[in-house]
Amino acid sequence: MVEHNVPFAVADHFSPLLKECFKDSPTAQNYKRARTKTSCIINEAVAPHFRKELVMKMRTNPFTLITDGSNDTGREKMNPLTVGI
Questions:
Q1: How does pLDDT run across 10-43, given as a tens digit for each residue?
Q2: Is residue 33 a contact partner of residue 11, using CB atoms and an 8 Å limit?
Q3: Residue 14 belongs to a domain
Q4: H-helix or E-strand spanning residue 19
């Protein structure tokens, strides 16, 4: 989900989709990951690992910082910061 910038809300529909597509798979039938659990896994388990890895690479390699405020939509203002290594 993160790699393709898919909203966490899609996770609410992913479980039923797997069950429909793979009716003969016990793994698919037992898969239960909605938005809350998915966001918790990504934000609390996966993100810290990759953050530490990124910091280690930034300490030993040249890097660039890129910011883009052009995606502001409506009331919500976003100003993402991207690190290029």
A1: 989 988 999 999 999 999 999 988 889 999 999 9
A2: yes
A3: yes
A4: helix 11-21
